[in-house]
Structure of FAD-dependent monooxygenase:
Amino acid sequence: MLKVDCLVIGGGMVGAATALSLADLGLKVALVEAHAPQEYSPEQDFDLRVSAISLASEQLLQQLNAWQQVQNWRSCVYQRLGVWEDDIAYAEFNAEEIQQPHLGHIIENRLIQLALWQQLEQKTNVTLLCPEQLDTFSQSSNKVIAQLTHSQVEANFIIGADGANSKVRQIAGIGITGWDYQQSAMLINVKTDQEQQNITWQKFVPGGPLAFLPMPNNNASLVWYQDKAEIKRLSALTNEQLQTEVLENFPKRLGNVEVIAKGAFPLTRRHANDYVKGRVVLLGDAAHTINPLAGQGVNLGFKDVAALQNVIAKAIGSGENYHDISVLKRYERSRRTDNLLMMTGMDAIYTTFANPSTPIKLLRNIGIFAAHRAPVLKKKALAYACGVS
Ligand SMILES: Cc1cc2nc3c(=O)[nH]c(=O)nc-3n(C[C@H](O)[C@H](O)[C@H](O)COP(=O)(O)OP(=O)(O)OC[C@H]3O[C@@H](n4cnc5c(N)ncnc54)[C@H](O)[C@@H]3O)c2cc1C
């Protein structure tokens, strides 16, 4: 049986970053993942799944030596963020306002995962088990024994980074609070007439927000939030029919586009009641899924990674037993409130903008208008969203 210090279930962006960050501390790590990410080739079309990566996440990926590889492949930097409902209440946030060179990058999820995997493959203290899956596990006072589909692993503790429907969370008996949002999101990859842009924008309309994420060269990722029935209707359209709908519904500033690919995703809110239970630790979507309105999901996951690494590094540094439950609980304490705050903030925006009443509409437009003219508030909100506050 393979014996390691830490067993990580799920080798997505968060799981791979977690495994790497703990291996960097000298821990012997095993990472279990069902599907390896596809290799990169420059001829590939852009993936549908992309993320707005914050400055804080960029720092973590730099520290893990994965950032440069992603940059060598492809990504799109942006310096500005535009938000509006009525044209008169347009607010624009700029990287200069927080003395940063940019606000973030739009990057395909797979490329982040792949760059992390390349680093993992170079570590002698990491065992990558893929394709492999967690079937079940049991924990005693000092260890965890996991039954995988093809083998068994013994570890001091187990990490669930296995996404929103986390099996680790279920087997550990960790409950969740949450709900499904009435809206779904449609991701649409388009070719644009306009040159590569340095702005990401979001317009709030009665059905749900319309978002633009710039991609390299003449490409972009659009996010269309709508109620589930409307997303179902849009999903059934051909690319040509969808293109007509996009041109009719998205703001004119988008310009002419050609639809290349599309896919629909349900929106759910989930928050684990515990991030640590015995020798089980949850990170990323296994611990929390958030409305993607402000592109914070994986950024929160990467903050979890940095927090866990910090807690374990300090424990090792002070001669403590790093896998004691009291140590692992410090990670939970450092992350739970921050995640809850961001989730609640996103829900407040979602609820406020979903309300069709005229007085509420007036108030929120005044809010956007005021935010644009309140430099201190604006700077604070921007720095928080970028993870540099
Ligand atoms: C429409 C939409 C737009 C978004 N946009 C943004 C954005 O702009 N910015 C942002 O920060 N976030 C965004 N997010 C959120 C972001 O995509 C997620 O937070 C992120 O992908 C979660 O990463 P993860 O590694 O925690 O989980 P996942 O990506 O779900 O990875 C989990 C991994 O675990 C593996 N796995 C699961 N079960 C097992 C098992 N039993 N055995 C072995 N392996 C297993 C899976 O194969 C998978 O690889 C968006 C989400 C949506 C829906």
